Amino acid sequence: MLIAEPLVNPHKWVERYADYLYAYTVSRINDEELARDLVQETFLAALQRVDKFEGKSAERTWLTAILKHKIIDVYRKRSSGLVLNDVKQAEQEQQDFFEADGHWTAERRPVAFGVEDNDPLHNKEFNRILEACMKKLPALWLAVFTMKHIDDEATSYICSELKVSDSNFWVIIHRAKLNLRACLQKNWI
Amino acid sequence: MNKLKKIQYNCKQATFLIEKRQLTKLTFREAIELRIHLAGCSVCRLFDQQSHIINALVKQLLKDADKHEIRLDDQYKQQLHTRIEDELNKK
Prior knowledge:
heterodimer; B: mainly alpha
């Protein structure tokens, strides 16, 4: 006899989604300890709301949405320090990128990575360096960068969630890429 | 120096527009400015190319993470499972 499975089945959550939710979190906040906590919090929060789940989305999508909010809370906490030391430091680094008139400086101007035409997507070492470089970005920049480039969130949503102005948003997008690219160049070539 | 001349020689502004262009539509003026700059600046053309590669790589990186390459350890999962069962029993 076939018994239809209920829309939500918390007994199976860990088995089915724990790894996925954990990987999702680690790749966005880079802290395994905290990621474990967030996965647990997500399950517990979801249990509280199980009655309200209408099955309009898949179970996994629903859980991921709950998790997303928790990740944004972390972003917000991390970037709410009165003195954003990491931002200051990263901005300082960029002073060497351009001359006063906006020209690239001779030392820091982009040079070819040598992987441009060579299937960089499958270059493991290059990917590893990129990952390390992402970790070096200030928390707020990484949050903005990830929400925009990976999660494809609306700019207005990111601005309101992370409390940055629209003009500051574009400045951060620009600066995050400048630093990321420079870090790659420094460590790859 | 008039405005067009300024952008023509300003790589900082050009890279700003390169990043913006990947995510939103530039204003007519911005688009023209950027095109003029890129026509004359091979370094920023390289930046543009590398910037696109970085975006693709970052996207892939996170997708790989979603493909279960990172796993929770079994002991923690067991704890989690027990915790959930406990909560369910409370109801």
